[in-house]
Amino acid sequence: MPRPIPDYLRVHREESPVSETAKQEAYPGLTQISQALANLTGFRLALREERQPNKGKRMSQQQVTRGGNTARIELHAAEKQASSAASDALTAESMGGVAGGLEFLLAEIDRLRITLRKQEAELATHIPVIANPSIEDLAERLEAALASAVDVTGADAAGLYVLDDATSQLKLRASHNLPATRLLDPPRPLEGSLADLEALSGHAVVLEDTKLLPHWPCPEEAPSAVCIPISTSTTPLGTLWVYSQTSRDFSLRETNLLEIIAGKLAVDLERDQLISERRTTQKLARQKNQIADRQKAQLPNVKPLVDGWDVSAWTQQGNDMGGDFHDWAVIEDGKLAIFVGDAMDDNFDAVMTSTSLATAVKANCRIAHNAEMMLDRVNRTFWEASAGDHFASLAYAIFDPMLGTMEAGSCGHVQGFAFKHNSVKPLWNPSWPLGSSPEVEPQLATAMLQPGETLALLSSGLSETLEELDGKNWQAKFCDLIVRHMDLPTDRIMRAVQERLNSAAIRINADKTLVLVKRKNDH
């Protein structure tokens, strides 16, 4: 003889045959609607289940689904109504429209329940809600483990409660024999949940009579329950609750079996969490590669077409993407503007800072008539757009191809050297970078380049790399390398510098930029 189900234990038990009321109660309120319509029109509503012939086939949105079955809403006339005149045909036709509308609404309820079930399984491992067929498999595995917990203990229902990221709340993420609406309940605060707190400390908690232990609150109104911790070797994940509709004890053997099942739940959660993290890492790697490719594409790949001048430039980011860049433009009167930027940030911040800086320089290079004006304009733009925690170095040089003159300015740590036939001259000293204040005092320099003489601009990352390789005397060794190759085109000089870097025993992950500008010999 089946045991009666107490009113205070809200669990679902599948029995056969299922009464019409039980079927309709799967959709709260449908019984009341049916009774009200029967009183008003003489027609009542009934759910009729049909086995779905093609289980894998996608069902119409208008069909009500219950498990693997398809359910239709039928109209049943009362006995007195069945023998009524044909004048009730209009009422029957109108009721048919009501039944069709209710089928659509119940189908929508089923769709939302299925989606909620998948999302709760996703959230059990903190996986973002995405279209992923493995989530359905995860939900089934979690529910199968909960069903096993109920079977091995002879209990009636079970629930999986997962901690949030703040470790302050517990949310039901999977259940067995609990109403589907439980998944819609708000999370329980961990504070005050003594049974969960005790379980998360590593102990199984058995509540033989929940009414006698009100200070150990039970999530469901069940006479008896047991709470088992779910955790990995390093991280608590949540708790497993198993409920009984009768007062009883859980033996040591049963709690041991539940701990084994809790271990399986932890493995399932951790496995899907690791898969999710791997997927996220792969997505992040693809995004970084895309950003790195775009950064390379934004660098100029065609030399400026200025007669009598030879320009070569090279930028290499330390970690795929970075904050170094170089560019050039032909401005008014055919003058050549060349600039080197160096964002003093890391990773994505460096990319955003260098992009905004390069955009500001491009926007102002045809307006600012000298290096000092350019640096002032760019600094104001950079200062107004920054929150005060981003800085950048910038060197800007303007060459007059006809006269061979150069006037330049620098803010920050981009270094410059003018290589003359009989001397090497540093152009400026390090200064405050862009973004350090609304007003800047750039380091300015002028030079007259004779045929065969060369100008070099180095980012701070390249300077630091050379200093790491050659020590404090790196400037002398770098300048000697350039002087020994000054008779060659800038491409060959650039290659000599790159070979020096590649010959080093260690690789230094720093953003590196070098720009060489040479006035060609007259012949």
From TrEMBL:
<dbReference type="InterPro" id="IPR036457">
    <property type="entry name" value="PPM-type-like_dom_sf"/>
</dbReference>
<dbReference type="Pfam" id="PF07228">
    <property type="entry name" value="SpoIIE"/>
</dbReference>
<dbReference type="InterPro" id="IPR003018">
    <property type="entry name" value="GAF"/>
</dbReference>
<feature type="region of interest" description="Disordered">
    <location>
        <begin position="1"/>
        <end position="24"/>
    </location>
</feature>
<dbReference type="Pfam" id="PF13185">
    <property type="entry name" value="GAF_2"/>
</dbReference>
<dbReference type="InterPro" id="IPR052016">
    <property type="entry name" value="Bact_Sigma-Reg"/>
</dbReference>
<dbReference type="InterPro" id="IPR001932">
    <property type="entry name" value="PPM-type_phosphatase-like_dom"/>
</dbReference>
<keyword id="KW-0378">Hydrolase</keyword>
<dbReference type="GO" id="GO:0016791">
    <property type="term" value="F:phosphatase activity"/>
</dbReference>
<feature type="domain" description="GAF">
    <location>
        <begin position="137"/>
        <end position="279"/>
    </location>
</feature>
<feature type="region of interest" description="Disordered">
    <location>
        <begin position="49"/>
        <end position="68"/>
    </location>
</feature>
<feature type="compositionally biased region" description="Polar residues">
    <location>
        <begin position="59"/>
        <end position="68"/>
    </location>
</feature>
<protein>
    <submittedName>
        <fullName>GAF domain-containing protein</fullName>
    </submittedName>
</protein>
<feature type="domain" description="PPM-type phosphatase">
    <location>
        <begin position="306"/>
        <end position="519"/>
    </location>
</feature>
<dbReference type="InterPro" id="IPR029016">
    <property type="entry name" value="GAF-like_dom_sf"/>
</dbReference>
